[in-house]
Amino acid sequence: MSDSRDRRSKSRRRAGRPPAGAKVGEKVKDYPQLSIRVPQEMKARLNAVSAVTGLAQWRVVVEAINCFVHDLPPHDRELVDGLSERMIQSET
Questions:
Q1: Sign of dihedral through CA atoms 45, 49, 51, 55?
Q2: Residue 14 has what pLDDT?
Q3: Which residue has the higher pLDDT, 72 or 28?
């Protein structure tokens, strides 16, 4: 009987979900929150994309922003990169 106890204690995982942030070890609950208003059709579409892909809604939004920035002209993309870097530095 002690063998089964040993096996159970070794294979125990921590309770709850593992951290699911964008980088290893980051917790989504530590991210700043964003509240936006969108047309009902876009909220429904976000819900549908999340359900079909299995991605969290925040990940869908992050991917959409990355795609949008990627499609900007190079000069605008450089401006966005520079501004966002300065904003990150000023927050720390």
A1: negative
A2: 63
A3: 72
Please report the DSSP string for the chain in residue order.
-HHHHHHHHHH---SSPPP-SSSTT--GGGSPP------HHHHHHHHHHHHHH---HHHHHHHHHHHHHHTS-HHHHHHHHHHHHHHHHHH-
How far apart are the C-alpha atoms of 81 and 86, rounded to whole Å? 9
Q: Can you read off the two tokens belonging to residue 72?
A: 């900007």
Do residues 61 and 67 lie in contact, with contact meaning Cβ atoms separated by under 8 Å? Answer: no
How far apart CA 58 and CA 73 sit, in angstroms, is: 25
Please tell me the predicted confidence (pLDDT) of residue 47.
97
Q: pLDDT digits over 15-62, tens only? A: 665 556 766 667 878 888 999 999 999 999 999 999 999 999 999 999
Nearest to 83 by CA among 91, 40, 62: 91
